[in-house]
Amino acid sequence: MTSARHPVVTFLLVGLFVLDVASDISTGVELVLNDHYAWGVAVLSLVLLPMAVSIVAELMRGCVYSGCCGEASTDWIPLIFYHVYTVIMMIGSGCHSRWAEECAYLRAIEGFLQAGPQLVLQLAIVFRGVLIHSLRDTMKMVLEDGVWDWDFFREKPVTWYWGLIQVYSILFSFASLLQTCVQFNEWPKRRHTPHKLLLVIPYFACTIAYRAAAIALLCTFVGEFAAAPLVLIALAQVVTLNSLGLDLARSVVYGVCALLAPVGYNRCRDPDNQPFGLSLLPGYAQGRCVADTGEICLPGEGDRTPDQVDALRERSKNYLAMHVILGGGILGISVAIAFLLLNFTQMFVPLHEWTVFTLQQLNDYAFPAASFSYVAAVVLTGLFTCCIGRCFEEEYIYPV
Questions:
Q1: Would you list the domain boundaries of the chain?
Q2: Mean pLDDT score, 1-16
Q3: Nearest to residue 178, comparing CAs of 198, 203, 204, 154?
Q4: 150: which of 69, 194, 365, 377 lies 20 to 30 Å off by Cα?
Q5: Dist CA 3 CA 284 (whole Å)
Q6: CA distances (Å), 49 to each of 110, 281, 335, 365, in order?
Q7: How far apart are CA 178 and CA 249, in angstroms?
Q8: C-alpha dist (Å) from residue 101 to 53, 89, 106, 196, 230
Q9: Of the listed ranges 30-34, 57-61, 143-147, 149-153, the one predicted with least confidence
Q10: Cβ(290)–Cβ(97) under 8 Å?
Q11: What is the pTM of this model?
């Protein structure tokens, strides 16, 4: 999915990456300029998070596997320019297999640690009513006047549309996280067919939409206490992944990254050669790998026995089922409690101090939309897990 043999795909991926990062930076700057200093700094801090995490991860990997004073001691230097370095790796990913794997690794970090958190943060910012001028005017037209007037937009100058940067940032963050989930979880598999992607993409989209909306609602009304269900979900996911056969370090990484969408349910463990679950073996990007015997073999044709492949499929289905259950069991209950508190107590009165929406709008749109997304995710999870062991058997040969 990152190969330069498909220049159009590469161009689209680079464009999505650049637009996602640029829209996040622009939103942070605009929030600061609109006197929302704390929110602006929070948005800009998340832009720097992938750089900080990748540098720390590279230093730790170097110390563990290569020695702190070895060649790996300088591998972190390009990561100071993380976003520019990632774009270079994406453009050149088809020239060298190592670049392709480095690109996938860096792209995954940006998707899970920047796009995902940005999506939740900026939804919470909008729910709180912290709006840039153009979006504030639009929300006033829709929420207070109750009408959608296209003439309202035709009368505005071109520069006015820049104030909708919050909306653009949310859309690009959602698209970036969705692309990362599909690429990280599904693309390394043996074949990619349109009918499989027609199921995979809606499945991830509904899961992301439900969890992001639910977490944003919790952050809006309970603030820092929303960390409690999130920590509980992450801990449960770490324990589940570890019990399904992953090492503890990878279980922690995948458990945290899977707060918005399932991550790593088909990854094996070899942290030395596969940081973040991505193979760095020479020639793998060309569809070849080195078996334990030293022989060259094709993925799925010698790297896994049929029993091992069946076990991996079963692990995937168990983890996906757990993921959707946690979404309803922990997030669902938390949102339901918030719903009850809003409708039957005086805790959030006056409501305008908590959110830009009225109680009727929350009951008519926000809570039903979150519920519908969850129901759709449950249905698609059932279809997806069924197809893992049945319809798409040849396509679900898992990578080493």
A1: 1-185, 192-400
A2: 73
A3: 204
A4: 365
A5: 13
A6: 9, 28, 28, 33
A7: 24
A8: 18, 9, 9, 24, 30
A9: 143-147
A10: no
A11: 0.84
